[in-house]
Each structure stands twice: as structure tokens, then as C-alpha cells.
Amino acid sequence: MEQVMDKALGLPVQARAFIDEKLLESLDAGDNFELSPEWKKEIRKRCQEIDKGLVELVPAEKVFEDAFRRIGCMLKTPQPMSD
Fold first, then answer.
1. How many CA within 13 A on the CB side of residue 25?
2. Is 45 inside any structural domain?
3. Less packed terminus of the chain by CB within 10 Å, N or C?
4. pLDDT tens digits along 19-67
């Protein structure tokens, strides 16, 4: 297994991302899981947009930070009105 990991880590970023995606899918998917043709088409479109630099990728940390900040603002309990 160590040899497989060493070879995989030596691959270009896009190849590692592809392998990562496939491994993660294998954890979530049942034995007979298959993406619909519509999802496959959407995934190809998004990958092409990324490859061509047409979209801006945002690190997950920033996405979650922004989301939690917004949720936090919404979840704050209102202060009672003083008379």
C-alpha cells in the first residue's frame, strides 16, 4: 500500500484530485450506484470550466468561515427592548 501511496502522491495535481474524487465516491456509493447522465454532463462542464480558468475556486476554509459567520449573525438572539 505504501508503494501505491508514493506513486499517487507523485502524480500531477489534477490526477491526484481525480483519484481522490473516485476514492471518496467509492466510500459513499453502494455497489450499484451510478451517476445519472445529467450529473455526469454537469460534472464534465464544471471540470472544463475549472481547467479553462473560467471560474474562481474558493478554499473550503473560506467558504465555511463565511457561512458560519453569516449563520452566527442570523442565530444571535435579539436583545430585549428596554423601556
1. 10
2. yes
3. C
4. 888 888 777 766 676 788 998 899 999 989 999 999 999 999 999 899 8
The count of domains in the chain is: 1
Residue 28 domain-assigned?
A: yes
Gap between the Cα atoms of 25 and 44, Å rounded: 16
Three-state secondary structure readout of the chain: CHHHHHHHHCCCHHHHHHHHHHHHHHHHCCCCCCCCHHHHHHHHHHHHHHHCCCCCCCCHHHHHHHHHHHHHHHHCCCCCCCC
23 located within any domain = yes
Host domain of residue 58? 2-75
Cα separation values, 74 from 14, 48, 79, Å: 38, 36, 13
